[in-house]
Design brief:
- The chain has helices at about 10-15, 15-20, 45-55, 65-75; strands at about 5-10, 30, 35-40.
- It is of the alpha+beta class.
- A three-stranded mixed beta sheet has the order 1-2-3.
- β2 (about 30) and β3 form a beta hairpin.
- The protein is elongated, with a radius of gyration of 20 Å.
Length: about 80
């Protein structure tokens, strides 16, 4: 993952363009009173993370095809 840049909430309010442009290529951590508060991401990165999050499911809801594949892998000789 690219290096992370930090901007204060005040900097973000006064000049949104620069941190917003940086967020197209790397996350920008926004701090308030010296503490991390939020992260500014590109829309593409946000969508990627959203899709990835939607791929998660409970172990009890694991599709049968995945269970079969896991079982086959577990039975392979070492």
């Amino acid at each position: 993952m690219p290096e992370q840049t930090t901007a204060t909430a005040g900097e973000l309010v006064r000049q949104f363009t620069h941190p917003s442009d940086l967020a197209l290529s790397q996350p920008v951590m926004v701090t308030r009173n010296g503490r991390p508060r939020s992260v500014l991401l590109s829309f593409e990165e946000y969508e990627r993370l959203k899709r990835r999050d939607q791929q998660a499911f409970l172990a009890a809801d694991t599709p049968e095809r995945f269970l079969s594949a896991i079982e086959e892998l577990a039975n392979l000789p070492e």
